[in-house]
Design a protein that fits this description.
Blueprint: E1 6-7, H1 25-35, H2 43-67, H3 73-95, H4 103-118, H5 122-134, H6 154-159, H7 162-168, H8 171-179, H9 182-193, H10 202-223, H11 226-252, E2 257-258, H12 266-272, E3 276-278, H13 280-287, H14 293-298, H15 307-321, E4 327-329, H16 330-344, H17 346-350
Parallel strand pairs: 1-2, 3-4
Length: about 350
Amino acid sequence: MVNPTVLVESLPTRDQETGRAKGSDFSELNRRMADAGLLRRRPLYYTVRFGVVALALAAGVAAFLVLGDSWSQLFVAVGLAVVFGQLGLAAHDLAHRQVFTRRRPSETGGLLVANLLLGMSYGWWMNKHTRHHANPNHEEKDPDVSPDILVWSRGQASRAKGLPRFIGRHQAALFFPLLTLEGLNLSFNSFKALRSPSMKRPVLEGTLLVAHFVLYFGGLFTVLSPGKALAFIAVHQGLFGIYLGSVFAPNHKGMPMIEEGARLDFLRRQVLTSRNVRGGFLVDAFMGGLNYQIEHHLFPSMPTPALGEAQVITERYCAELGIPYHQTGLLASHREALRHMRSVGEPLRTAR
């Protein structure tokens, strides 16, 4: 019996009602977005948004220096975890050229934000994220659903060995605790990727990564006693990881997986594997616009403030074509993701 959460069948080549060829479905949606002016850059928005994040970072560093060797620094760690999350979202938008149309300023901004400020390799993340966008939730091609530690389909569970097999049994319960390590995991993989042939500027990226950690650890262990410094790192990196996971997990986890051989056009591949999250201004700010995941996947370079209007157009268009379009609240999105994780891990719990 085919797992209903896995897409394996090819879709009809023509829409039964309109007779529109599949190949032209996205082109028509793209035309509607262009006519609405949603693809143009929004420099004022990004100037204000990045300026606010920069001020928040400066305020956090200033508070750290003023408080000195105090346990009150743990409150600073909480605040800087949120700031680091926003920096991660800024690096994401820079990588997608939502901010600048040209490659060089996008890369320069991305290297400074990702490598120097966050301690994460821009080149490594770009490579991984580009492959994710090309094949979201594809069991063989999407690195975000590779069974490194967690399993995302029953097929992966049946083939799991070692750590994924051990953790997969209770991965839903362990998901948020594991997220506390995500920030450190990103940095570890960033240093590991410096030796990869796909890395274009390993020396530059490595230098910026080292500079980040010299400043980070040097500042902590100079100002704080060893015990307080370690506590600061635990709180800061742990909450930073949870923040990132809370932003990215609701977008695809629990949505249909794609097996090798499935034939889906671009529009359907992106819509069927993505989930939007409702919630208004607060959710928009918290998730940096990635709550409009369907629209972001369809138009990766679309500026964040245009995504809300694009959502209305896309949902109506999908209704015209009879394409399922999934949108839910923030808490419900996490419930769906965790329910899926528990379901796909069931074969590991029942295996003898």
